[in-house]
């Protein structure tokens, strides 16, 4: 097929799918603003735009965002935990191309470009607010992983796995023996080349306030804003009082170095002791954990509403491309729910990698639509690039533009996570994944996966999204075919980036 025919077919397909005219000359149109919103550890069932969401979940502002555009009920991240997933999301590549061990800390190589770098080169003004996490080189300004060193003009947030929601001041950091533990982190936020202390305020609100301010300031130029909330990641119980009241659950005291007792291997007085205590089931039990989680999520949803209102007020709502995604599946030990999927964060079961996702762009994307194909977080970079008019010439990008090709029936998706792996092709998924509870036993909200060994399991996800019926023994040829596909992909691509 020659190029012009291909282009004509593609243009018609886009016009049909997204209700826009194929005749329009994109170069004469104003480039869209781009807002990438990332939530943290949000469960598949904890996103009310999806059918069959948990009945106790109400996220009306996420519904408003989703109804203005397209939802993706089969959206995957490239890893079941924060850091590698975010590496894939930011680069459009499977992070195990360069991190062959498929670890918690892939980092960001100098040669791998990020979305922010592409957009900055194209003339966008860029900012990141919230969490920055590549699993390595935390808390440092002088590394590739720091947002100012991979395409962002501005950064306000934290470079760590997690941050306290309430304790964001210099004063508390001074009194804490371990403000920069690997996971446990509190104190002032990193702001460009220095720190910004917040003696008061709740982190989800702070990030939104700063994002709204950014939108107002940059309203006259195309901007790329990444708003990466740490909600709904633990420490999940830290929620403003009005939400605790709504979900009828008691407040738990904030960390105080003078009164913190020892916990596990963590010394008395340490923030690590507080963090560990409340990231495991025990100090908080299942039923209350779910309430804290729902309260935390409700606050996040209200904040999403605030940023949507701000875009509308500035007249930017029509021509802003918003991508919303969770960085991995819900963590049952923090009260998330992934039903009807199996398992959750930390594993390659569907509950670990299939996540809430929606795209809104009223000027281009048809409202109220659903993409029924299976897509990946690596698709976000090519999608945003296309919207911004950026041509990608890098042959090792694993994603594709979701606004040009809504189908996903014949592509191969691959996952590598420690000694586990998975592939998806059509309705089929082959994986050797095992059980992984993370930091504790499965909660009442955990749907127990069917196996805890590393043998190969085959599922037809169209008929069996919960991965209950292992077809491996019945279909050895399909197992072989998918195993070969995985092996071939690895031999052709690992180490190339
Ligand atoms: Ca996460």
TrEMBL record:
Alphabetical list of Pfam families matching this protein: Sulfatase
Domain of life where this protein originates: Bacteria
Keyword Nucleotide-binding among UniProt keywords: no
UniProt xrefs under Gene3D superfamilies: 3.30.1120.10, Alkaline Phosphatase, subunit A (3.40.720.10)
Sequence ranges assigned to domain Sulfatase N-terminal in this UniProt record: 32-390
Membrane-spanning ranges: none
Gene Ontology MF term list: arylsulfatase activity
Signal peptide: 1-22
SUPFAM superfamilies hit by this protein: Alkaline phosphatase-like (SSF53649)
InterPro entries per the UniProt record, alphabetical: Alkaline_phosphatase_core_sf, Sulfatase, Sulfatase_N
Keywords from the named record: Hydrolase, Signal
Similarity comment: Belongs to the sulfatase family.
Name the record gives this protein: Sulfatase N-terminal domain-containing protein
Source organism: Maribellus luteus
